[in-house]
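re: the backbone from monday

yeah here it is again, tokenized this time
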């Protein structure tokens, strides 16, 4: 019952358009497979907490269909978005045990798997679409990231995204001084906690399913999230202002249980990973387009998009340096220095 309630709650706040009767009964009706998976030799259960209206989430279905096609029906990707398998911390535990074989983990949660995965959430490091492309396509940057969780029996296969982070607020935040009066909801992630402490801002750590009621009741007055997610999940109906910080790219990190992966025949394993790589790259391009579409739609609906003064951005970057130094010790100071040097400070 708890999982069913969570699914219904998430669906209620994630569907951006009017639903058909069938979709009201099953919010994932439009994404049912057009094939019978019962004959598959291998099943890959893949989890995600969000709604596939977001391109970075829908990637799981595209991977499902392409893997089925390319392996001639030998591998079935049983994709479970909308937190059907529980919250991210719970699913990470299941992934390590092998009860779940894959997870499109939010990048903020992925830092709980391995410290090095937190590099993509550090303030003003991998903060633009272009920097993300460079990070993913440079082996010297990507390989240490992809192998960071091997000690936990997890392989990082690739990443998809959900756009650049900012602040959705109930009152306009035009300066850092304005931000002092906001209680921001942040994710259950150590990098975010350290950043907000360094910035001297008030924050509340809160699971995503609790956000709608907290925002409606004024328990929180701001969200640390992306414009794509805030518009699609209708958070802009209450928080009608968005301050474009662009301090990090929201990512879904594709985590794979290594024991399951190693049990695949070599040809299937190669095909499986190639499909993930191809579909993830295509999805990152779709996310860029979705960002433009969702921002335009939000502006048309009356949401005000705000840019902080350059002096305030410079101050945020300065205040972030102790966070970068602390996390550099965790993820490897030489690695972080190489990432920052390659991408540009």
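seq for it, each position gets an aa:
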């Amino acid at each position: 019952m708890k999982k069913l309630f969570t699914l219904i709650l998430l669906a209620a706040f994630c569907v951006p358009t009017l639903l058909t009767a069938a979709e009201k009964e099953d919010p994932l009706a439009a994404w049912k497979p057009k094939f019978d998976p019962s004959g598959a030799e291998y099943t890959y259960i893949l989890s995600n907490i969000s709604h596939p209206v977001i391109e970075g989430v829908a990637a799981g279905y595209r991977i499902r269909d392409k893997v089925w096609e390319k392996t001639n029906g030998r591998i079935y990707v049983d994709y479970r978005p909308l937190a059907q398998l529980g919250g991210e911390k719970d699913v990470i535990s299941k992934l390590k045990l092998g009860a779940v074989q894959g997870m499109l983990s939010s990048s903020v949660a992925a830092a709980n798997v391995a410290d090095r995965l937190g590099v993509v959430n550090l303030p003003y490091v991998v903060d633009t679409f272009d920097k993300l492309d460079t990070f993913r396509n440079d082996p010297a940057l990507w390989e240490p990231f992809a192998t960071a969780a091997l000690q936990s029996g997890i392989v990082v296969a690739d990443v998809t995204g959900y756009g650049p982070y900012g602040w959705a607020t109930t009152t306009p935040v035009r300066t850092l001084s304005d931000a002092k009066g906001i209680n921001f909801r942040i994710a259950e992630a150590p990098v975010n906690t350290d950043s907000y402490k360094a910035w001297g801002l008030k924050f509340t750590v809160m699971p995503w399913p609790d956000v709608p009621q907290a925002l409606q009741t004024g328990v929180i007055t701001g969200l640390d999230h992306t414009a794509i997610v805030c518009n699609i999940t209708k958070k802009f109906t209450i928080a009608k202002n968005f301050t474009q910080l662009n301090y990090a790219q929201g990512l879904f990190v594709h985590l794979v249980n290594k024991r399951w992966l190693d049990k695949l025949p070599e040809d299937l394993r190669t095909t499986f990973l190639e499909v993930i790589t191809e579909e993830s790259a295509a999805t990152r391009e779709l996310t860029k387009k979705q960002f433009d579409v969702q921002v335009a739609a939000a502006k048309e609906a009356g949401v005000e998009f705000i840019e902080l003064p350059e002096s305030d951005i410079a101050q945020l970057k300065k205040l972030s340096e102790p966070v970068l130094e602390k996390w550099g010790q965790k993820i490897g100071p030489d690695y972080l220095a190489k990432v920052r040097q390659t991408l540009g400070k």
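Residues 186 and 192 are 7 Å apart (CA to CA). The chain has a mean pLDDT of 93.
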